[in-house]
Amino acid sequence: MSVLVKNLMEDMVERKFRQIVPQLNCCTCDICKTDIMCYALNRLKPKYVATSQGELLSRIDSLSSTFEIAIMTELTAGAEIVRKNPRHNTSTE
Questions:
Q1: What global pTM score does this model have?
Q2: Which residue, 36, 17, 22, is CA-closest to 85?
């Protein structure tokens, strides 16, 4: 039997990125979006689950305002770094 392991933090970071992207004042091309989310994910504690019950409990736990602030803080820092050092071709913008 194969058990799937999922890092819920990926979904939470992507959801929060979509919510706050207008305030980030950054490029939203796929390269920049991925770089910003990777920056945040590398600095946030992962939330791995292997069952639907574990996923539900982890999602409930992740609703704290402190947790939301941590995600927004890392996304904001990532957006600033990526804005200053984009990996996409800036000559075509």
A1: 0.82
A2: 36
